[in-house]
Amino acid sequence: MARTEFVLNRPYDLLIFDWDGTLSDSAQLIVDSMQGAIAALGLPPRQDQQIRELIGLSLSDGMARLYPEAEPGEVLRLLEGYRQQWLGPAGGGANEAPLFDGAQRCLERLHGDGYWLSVATGKSRPGLNRSLRHHAELRPLFMVTKTADETASKPDPLMLREILAELQVPAERALMIGDTEYDAAMAAAIGMPALGVACGVHEAGRIRRAGALAVIDSVHSLPDWLRG
């Protein structure tokens, strides 16, 4: 499927969204789940903020940064403990994070205005599929979704390259929207504009320094920002 002509007076045709911290208010659930896995495995404690800083990366990359001293086998045990906490019935799987206020209305409005919508997330494919089952009204709005376990982890721009290739949209006609420097950096690496949101885990200045054009309060403000 390809965009064969662009909408006049509109700088972007494709809007690519991060999930956690951008569309979904999931940061505290992720932190709590990870702390549960750390405690269950008897690993050295980490502060909540240390975990928050890594939201947006793939789980394996995040754990390598959180426990650089750990043996690979120990990291793998942590990954399994996290998945049980987060995806299982006793963890986040039974308590899916809500969307930010106005996020669904924003996406529906943008879709109705003719924008193409996609997702590029550090979540795993099972994790994103679970989220989309819970928020089933969003699933038909997205043309393509990419997760960190089926491509490269942020800030590597491979997932963005794959979305652009699948939809045949040039980088300059797409906009990446996310709450971390990882989102802005991967977009900047391929000449794609990026917009930050301040409702997630990285502060606005950090997102701007990574290459974002601007930082808005949340995706609720995105339609107004696009109108300029």
Automatic annotation (TrEMBL):
It comes from the Bacteria. GO terms for cellular component: cytosol. The keyword Hydrolase applies. Signal peptide: none annotated. Coiled coil: none annotated. GO terms for biological process: DNA repair. It holds the Pfam family HAD_2. Keywords: Hydrolase. GO terms for molecular function: phosphoglycolate phosphatase activity. This is HAD family hydrolase. The lineage of its organism: Bacteria, Pseudomonadati, Pseudomonadota, Gammaproteobacteria, Nevskiales.
